[in-house]
Amino acid sequence: MAEFVGMKVGEWFAFYVLDRLVSKVFSYFSGRCDLLKGVEDMLRDVEDRLPRIRAVIDAAEGMPVRDPALAKWIAELKGAAYAADDVVDEFEFRELHDRSHQRGKVGELSSSAHKLLAHFTFSDEDLIKSLKNLVENLDKIYADIGHRELKLDQYRKDKKEATAACRETSSFMLADKVFGRDKETQMMLDLLLSAGEPADGGGATTCSSAAGSSSGPGLAVLPIVGIGGVGKTTLAQLIYNDPRVAQHFQLRRWVYVSDNFDVKRISKELVHGGIADPRFVDISLDEALVKVTDATRNERFLFVLDDVWDERGIKWKELHSALTFGSKGSTVLVTTQSPVVADLMGTVEPIELKCLEDYDYWELFEHYAFGDQDQLGGSKRKRLQLIGREISKKLHGLPLAGKVLGTLLQSEQEEGYWRSISESEWWKQELALDSILPSLGLSYQHLTTNQKQCFAYTSIFPRGYEFEKEQLVHMWIAQGFIQFDSDQRTRPEDSGNRMFDELTNRHFFFPTMHNKFVMHDLIRDLAVYVSLDECYVVSEWPAKFPATVRHLTLNTDNLDVLRDVPKFQRLRSILFFREYDSSELDEILEGILKNLKSLRVIDLSHSGIQIKKLPDAICDLSHLRYLDISCTGIRQFPKQFSRLCHLQVLNLQRCRFKKIPEGMNRLINMRHLYAGAETIALIDGIGRLTDLQELEEFRITRKRGHRIGELKD
User: Fold this and answer.
1) Distance CA 486, CA 492 (A)
2) Residue ranges of the Disease resistance R13L4/SHOC-2-like LRR domain (predicted)?
3) Which of 116, 302, 322, 460 could crosslink 249 through cysteines, CB 3.0-4.6 Å?
4) What is the pTM of this model?
């Protein structure tokens, strides 16, 4: 068998950036014959080579790659593209500098912009030197392209292009239909709806006989156990949202747990239902558990703990101690893949979900593959059904696989397309590695190139993390993943929202109970796989950072990991997902920001960081576009913060600022400012931020920059 290396993602980004580099440099040097002469030949060479580079990218993009040398070549090409992206950024800074300088009458904004841009930008000689180094690197990559083309011949023969157009979608999600689970559903409803009711003298129901009576004293814990993708969460959602269940229980909460059984976080969500509460930021674990006890005392509650992995049970015992004061019939519903967890936590016999039987599975698959489309002719539908049955048999009764692949097939109901899915090399056993279901890989392959990049980036979130649509779209835009037509007055946010809806419609993202979204574990495994270590979540020590990492999430409180981060100077994203309480953190964060000059995304909102002031080094991050310091103790900006001209998103929610440095109105690319009214009122001349898309609250005064007329743009 051929060695299976992996799938490459984001090659479209390499071509897009290189093409953009050529046009940007020509535009910048036009009219400067002395400088253009030095770079024109280099650019013409790059321009001439782009079609051949594109041909190799098109052949390799999204396909399984068995050749390590080919994988290495594409990685080098992408590395060059990232370097080119930084150079393009510098040219954009120079153009902004020149435009502000040429306005003639230099007002406060333009003169200040001129000074701060001068701090950042290279001289023309530096720019040309960077460009030459980049082109030399591209020369080396291009010299090896002939070998790559030969290797790709086999992929070209097998590859079937995804020709289906993306269907129009919306953010409104229809409730999932559940197939083949009638027996389990009725058992669970019988158990829950009898919870807390007086026992029937005529004897227990069939459900109670199997699972034990829940009308007795103590907390009932009902596990749903089964392998990944079998439908545990879907069944739990069906039960949770049943109107009879909603009426029966006085308090209901849903918490996605995953492999991090964080008792304090879970307690917060049980009390507040996922709604952020600043009073929970600085409290101890004991105080959090007391709040859970107070919230549940004498209440009949139903809590769902989804996707639990804690097989030791220590943390569950801590949480359990706070859940024993509810009314009779209170129940915790647990979904898990682990029989150990089910045995450890359960007080009643677990509901064991098996893969669906053939009849039920075909009903599910047909629902997603054909939908409600009655326009298909009888003979055509029969032919598609024959192919569909071949495909459904390869999915082994897993509902998740049926939903994802069925949705893909519904997008193009042509025999040739369905046959290409049925005969794809993804079904070969040699490719079914690392728990990646072939059906999911197939669905990924048939995404557009742009969708692939956005999907892979989502692996930057830890397993089980519930993310907001707006948050992820802003991150995509910050990384340059969203293409939009400025001439057609299309906002990047609109393009990003459509991208998000398309991925959600294909079941790559699932909505949660908190108006957020999450990736199923198997879907996230695929995202991690296709990112090939460009996105990396550190959760333990010692950590082995891959050399290719560009987007890093720190899900560990080990400071030694943080001290290693400055070595990876090519990082473009850094997210902190653990709370830190150390006097050394100020110095460590300063070192990180001082060395990572290519950062475009920084998120400190989950860190609970209590330093008073953002480090001065952040002012030198000329590429920074997204900064989230919400829910931190930061109260002061560096004086030169207004240097960050590329900054598009700034989140200051639940931060307590008493003073904002002058010049914040010079952040002329700011599109989204999330802050309380008190903080916004501190920003002088906020009306000059004409790219702002919205403000949650704006206090109108007679002061310049705060008049109602200044919000007209």
Assistant:
1) 8
2) 592-711
3) 302
4) 0.79
